[in-house]
Amino acid sequence: MTFLIISGVSVTLFAMTILGLIIVWGGISNIPDDY
After folding, report:
1. pLDDT at residue 12, as a whole number
2. Using CA atoms, how far apart are residues 5 and 3, in angstroms rounded to an integer?
3. What pTM value is reported for the model?
4. Which residue stretches of 1-35 are H helix?
5. What φ, ψ does residue 27 adopt, rounded to 5°?
6. Residue 1 three-state SS
7. Can you give the pLDDT at residue 21?
8. Cα dihedral value 7, 13, 16, 20, nearest 10
9. How far is CA 1 from CA 7, 9, 12, 30, in A?
């Protein structure tokens, strides 16, 4: 049970990190398009 909780939290943090990087990278790459 503990292993399931730990792996679930790890997957959630991993997914949030990936989404965060995509959002940040997308925001940075979209800046030159506005000029």
Report:
1. 97
2. 5
3. 0.58
4. 2-30
5. -65, -40
6. coil
7. 92
8. -140
9. 10, 13, 17, 43
Q: How far apart are CA 30 and CA 15, in angstroms?
A: 22
Q: How far is CA 30 from CA 17, 18, 21, 34, in A?
A: 20, 18, 14, 7
In this predicted model, what pLDDT tens digit does every residue of 1-35 receive, in sequence order? Answer: 899 999 999 999 999 999 999 988 887 776 666 55
Q: What is the pLDDT of residue 33?
A: 62
For residue 22, give the amino acid letter: I
Token pair listed for 11: 């997957």
Q: What are the φ and ψ backbone dihedral angles of 31, each rounded to 5 degrees?
A: -65, -45
